[in-house]
């Protein structure tokens, strides 16, 4: 995976909408964790189904994109599976039992809920949180990649600024449908804007 990070320019009401989306993502993650604690034999897919129940029960949860809700449930499941792995490996000391999130700093969209502009210098979020169009400030050329190679878009709050990280799949096929590059051991490459 290749990850590009851009600074985001937005209006005050857009910052407020992004903060609301981040809080909703944190709420869904904590509710999924509580659902796992209360019920026995809950799997990853049960948490994804529970996201739909939460969207029907809470109006503010239904305003967030469905894939962003599922991404929050996947975060909860990654904490749960890490706990199970540590128990199976019999690690000495604490097994990192999953905790509720108090300070969440990001919301993650998968392949829907966002749209890059034609010149690739702005991104529009289409969920009901009214985030709207955000300007991307950075020097990376996104025209090199096709839109179907984008796997995830994440809005991250860091210190006093807001960043948009775009994750690309680095799988390229040539005209015959073959992989021209040998796989490497590196999982991801992260680029940050220097402005």
Would you mind describing this structure in some detail?
This protein is α+β, with helices and mostly antiparallel strands and 195 residues long. The protein folds into 2 domains: 2-16 and 105-172 and 187-191, no CATH class; 18-89. It has helices spanning 12-38, 44-57, 59-62, 66-89; strands at 2-9, 106-109, 114-116, 122-125, 132-137, 150-158, 161-168, 189-191. Strands 1, 2, 3, 4, 5, 6, 7 and 8 form an 8-stranded mixed beta sheet that branches. Helix 1 (12-38) packs across helix 2 (44-57), helix 1 packs across helix 4 and helix 2 (44-57) packs antiparallel against helix 4. The two termini are 23 Å apart. The model has no long low-confidence stretch (mean pLDDT 88).
Key structural traits:
single chain, 195 residues, alpha+beta, 2 domains, 8-stranded mixed beta sheet, 8 strands, 35% helix, 23% strand
Give the helix/strand layout.
Elements: E1 2-9, H1 12-38, H2 44-57, H3 59-62, H4 66-89, E2 106-109, E3 114-116, E4 122-125, E5 132-137, E6 150-158, E7 161-168, E8 189-191
Parallel strand pairs: 1-8
Antiparallel strand pairs: 1-5, 1-7, 2-6, 3-4, 4-5, 6-7
Helix pairs in contact: 1-2, 1-4, 2-4
The fraction of residues in strands falls at: 15-25%
- Percent of residues in helices: 25-40%
Based on DSSP secondary structure assignment, what is the total number of beta strands?
A: 8
Shape: globular
Précis, in short:
The chain is an alpha+beta fold and 195 residues long. Helix content is 35%, strand content 23%.
């Amino acid at each position: 995976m290749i990850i590009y990070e851009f600074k985001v320019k937005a209006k005050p009401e857009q910052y407020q909408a992004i903060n609301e989306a981040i809080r909703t993502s944190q709420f869904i993650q904590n509710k999924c964790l509580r659902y796992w604690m209360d019920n026995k034999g809950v799997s990853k897919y049960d948490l994804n189904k529970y996201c739909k129940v939460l969207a029907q029960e809470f109006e503010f949860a239904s305003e967030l994109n469905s894939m962003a809700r599922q991404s929050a449930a996947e975060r909860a499941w990654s904490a749960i599976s890490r706990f199970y792995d540590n128990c199976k490996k019999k690690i000495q000391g604490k097994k990192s039992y999953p905790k509720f999130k108090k300070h969440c700093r990001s919301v993650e969209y998968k392949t829907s809920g966002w749209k890059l502009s034609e010149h690739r210098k702005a991104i529009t979020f289409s969920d009901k949180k009214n985030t709207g169009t955000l300007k991307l400030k950075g020097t990376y050329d996104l025209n090199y990649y096709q839109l179907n190679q984008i796997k995830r878009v994440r809005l991250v709050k860091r210190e006093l600024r807001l960043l948009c990280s775009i994750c690309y799949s680095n799988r390229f096929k040539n005209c015959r449908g073959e992989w021209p590059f040998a796989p490497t051991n590196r999982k991801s490459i992260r680029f940050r804007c220097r402005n």
